[in-house]
Amino acid sequence: xxxxxxEILRRFFEPQSIAVVGSFKEGFFGxxxxxxxxxxxxxxxxxxxxxxxxxEVLGLKVYGSVKELPESVDLVFLIIxxxxxxxxxxxxxxxxxxxxxxxxxxxxxxDAEGGHLQEELVAFGRKKGIRIIGPNxxxxxNTANGFNPCPYEAGYHRxxxxxxAICSQTGMINPQAYPYRDxxxxxxxxxxxxxKSDVDECDVLEYLExxxxxxxxxxxxxxxxxxxxxxxxxxxxxxxxxxxVLKSGRTQEGARASAxxxxxxxxxxxxxxxxCRQGGIIRLDTFQExxxxxxxxxxxxxxxGNRMGILTVTGGVGVMAIDEGARYxxxxxxxxxxxxxxxxxxxxxAGRMPVDxxxxxxxxxxxxxxxxxxxxxxxxxxxxxxxxxxxxxxxGENAKDIYLRAYEPLKGRFPKPLVTWTYGPDSNTARDLAxxxxxxxxxxxxDAESCVKALGLSFRYAQIxxxxxxxxxxxxTNPRPLGFKRGG
Amino acid sequence: xxxxxxEILRRFFEPQSIAVVGSFKEGFFGxxxxxxxxxxxxxxxxxxxxxxxxxEVLGLKVYGSVKELPESVDLVFLIIxxxxxxxxxxxxxxxxxxxxxxxxxxxxxxDAEGGHLQEELVAFGRKKGIRIIGPNxxxxxNTANGFNPCPYEAGYHRxxxxxxAICSQTGMINPQAYPYRDxxxxxxxxxxxxxKSDVDECDVLEYLExxxxxxxxxxxxxxxxxxxxxxxxxxxxxxxxxxxVLKSGRTQEGARASAxxxxxxxxxxxxxxxxCRQGGIIRLDTFQExxxxxxxxxxxxxxxGNRMGILTVTGGVGVMAIDEGARYxxxxxxxxxxxxxxxxxxxxxAGRMPVDxxxxxxxxxxxxxxxxxxxxxxxxxxxxxxxxxxxxxxxGENAKDIYLRAYEPLKGRFPKPLVTWTYGPDSNTARDLAxxxxxxxxxxxxDAESCVKALGLSFRYAQIxxxxxxxxxxxxTNPRPLGFKRGG
Lengths: 488, 488
Fold this sequence. Notes:
homodimer; Rossmann fold; 18 strands; disordered C terminus
């Protein structure tokens, strides 16, 4: 009896009641931290701690066993030694519990004996209709209902809310590991599959497909369990939302290490690549990108074509940006006549792509008074589908104001993505300007290459969605003001 | 008559006297900023401002023309309109000046007329034995003598001193653009070639080859002027010091933009790649890497082989690191028996690579008391040639102390590189720990992939230098405490 995936999947993210079986000793890991975190994150469901050695924790009554709980629960967390998991699962089954997060390690990732234990656990779950996330997982998060049951101390409880769902086969994606508040990556859901013994990428993709809080899905995978189903599900989901995947275990040695880490079965990288292409999935290259690339999808409209406009204060970066763009099929835009003559009118030689205002800045006194009109001209240009803006944050006190004034009037007017790189002699000044622009809804990346890559992947997804040059699909205008609020 | 390259090149970096021809109006660009910066950076040579409209600037007497100078100078800066450059150069020639930095733009990067002007300028320089950096350049820096004649306002004057020389065809590398103080990239020399009409990468490589303050050379190029000479010089220099090159204009469109930017001639990327391989040059992929990759060469010994040891608190990153390592020929090390039994003694399953202390941390109370011995065991292991350490900066107040105590005793003991990635729920905490480790002389990179790349390029350079497995070449031990002092 395999339980209905979609219905039960909801219990992992939207439970009305949870049980937590584990130690409640204070420390940086365990049931105590988990309960403290959900309480402080504002979760309003009922919470039942379970441990025969305690009577009360954090003001909650502790029950001696799952059998003694006053009611069944939507979801149970097991943070106990591996050998005790199956007996407790039997109690769970007896109480009609249908969803379990098994945080415990010591299963397939440890050794053959652990692998055997894991098989027994999965078989039991199947028989009783209990879906399992894990084992060896750091769990799940849902920011919509304050459900942040992280078993590791992160030092904070509320994640920034936003449209990005992050799923992974490593605890590296959880709040204790990645600085979500500082990254300004607004999150809808997090799911750590752990050893992925039962609930897998396909189950969660199907759940996220219908989750209104999620606009972009970002996943780290060490393997896929069912290639055929993954392809089917991907094809459907990627027509609605971009799905970004970082896959490790690409090399033989990496695959071997992955087997130790989560007991993953290897899949040939060329095969996986073909599945991604057919399924409309966009592959990423680094961990950072899991959290950074979603920003453009969360806030910017898709481009209608591959013509990149570049505005820059430094010619060298313009040249690099063109090279980088070519990797993703972006071409440098050829500006309209009216843009050319407007720019040439300000400074001879400025009327071409990349629009390099470096020489102008040194020679034309009121370049910065003209800056908003220059940026607007590039955004308005009908030959430009996507825009990279490179800004020098080194003009003194009023630099931030000048740039924010130039961006403010662009909000919501153009059906094309705009990404920005801010640089300068002082990192804090550059970062402060970046935050200001992101607060307006325009994403900023930490280097020029990442900006171009974001535009390139946005163009790639436009093609996947059939959104490009055909022009048949109405585009949102930018920005969609999601996910850049500073975290609480 | 072409002047003796090496002798005159010294004048650009070690002048006893300079003349500055330009405007002395206060602003963010020009002669005023240049003179203010060299004065405040502590340059002790004689400075002669030249401009008929001024009598005094920053306490210095201003001369009406180069002809009126009381003495000849080692180096002249021209920050005047393009059309005036040649007439002033005639005065310079008459006064016996042999080295000129032409900051002025409006030459080959502008249009055909500018290209013609540039040809005239170069021909004149050749005839009179005047070497020229530029035009369209932001100049040079030498931190050894406080010579920081940057024509752009950077907000600071003293760059952090260190062993890294940075050369480029864009002003992006200059103090006003890159946050050298924050990047903790200790600099020996900077040279912006600008349009590279005369002094080029080969001239500067030959100068840096013999510069005792420079241990690593990092270059951004849009083209090379003389392939044959570049290959000859590279072969010689790379046997002494690593030479890292980022080259743009890789694509046709990029090359076209590069022609507009600095008037560079394109060179086929496959050809350039072959030259780099033969010349022992290491190619980089991003601007950031120009400033980040040198750290490992500046502070760590070269590895004797390709066996990478990994210590991590998160298995997912271990898997990624192995995949990344494979790109650079790194293999995962198989630890010695004594390392394995020591680790298994602490926690079953810990005695293998990557050494994942994540499960141990959750289960073994005194993991952190044992941490220094674990790190030392990996560093001591004879089967390990290079080490990646992944640290979780989320343990509360005393995390930094614990890690610093573990690193302190490693200083100067092992002939193998150690790089570290620090991560955690709070960026500032992770950064503070990173700075602490770097102050001890161990480089930290901003993501795990960059750490592995640094190790991989270090291994590649060991091969170039003939330093690897043969074991014939004595290795320095780490760390070499250079370049990580916080900037002044």
